Amino acid sequence: MCQTFSQDAKEIIRKTDQKRRGDAATAEMTISIIRPTWSRDMDVKSWSRGTDYSLILITSPARDKGSVFLKRDKEIWNWLPSIERNVKLPPSMMMQSWMGSDFTNDDLIKESSVVDDYTHKILGDSVIQDRECWVIELIPKEDVAVVWGKVLNWIDKDEYIELRSEMYDEDGYLVNEVNFLEIKDLGGRMLPSVMEFIPAEKEGHKTVIRYHQVDYDARISENFFSLQSMKRVK
Question: Which residues pair with 136 in a beta bridge?
Fold first, then answer.
């Protein structure tokens, strides 16, 4: 019985991950970094292919315009237009903030697979945004290098939409919570159009990603995700 239950939980996570990610996609979004005394917005375009390739172009504000981040397998490269150079981010920078936001360079990579690198267990049921959902616990496998000690996901039962996520450290303390809001049609799929990322220990801090457009029918070859593309993508 336990094995069947476990397999069900893994299948739920797999379906949810695949619906959100797709095989290849492009997106346009605004990232808002909110602090107790100030806030700032960045407009971003992104291209992705599976879990191994992504490219992010910042289109505004003016001071960041033209900056590009490339993820290729487990590497992150940054194109800096001011000096016209590609810089590879070293492992020591993986846990540093990405562009002053509440997520890290490691979050950008997402090396770990929520499907393959964790064991999954349904803890129970809940209701979020008037939607019935499963509460699923993800515990990292012993032989996998994962940042979190535990992750809890709330998944909508009808449409396999992630509605909330909580990330805990190895000592069981809550580090981040993520709320997925304003569900609507994005690229032909019902998905949250807003992601609210809140660090537990920093009152008044949050980063909000608002998706304006997503295309899941994009045809993007692996060759697109190259150091040369970083210099000319628009």
Answer: 122, 153
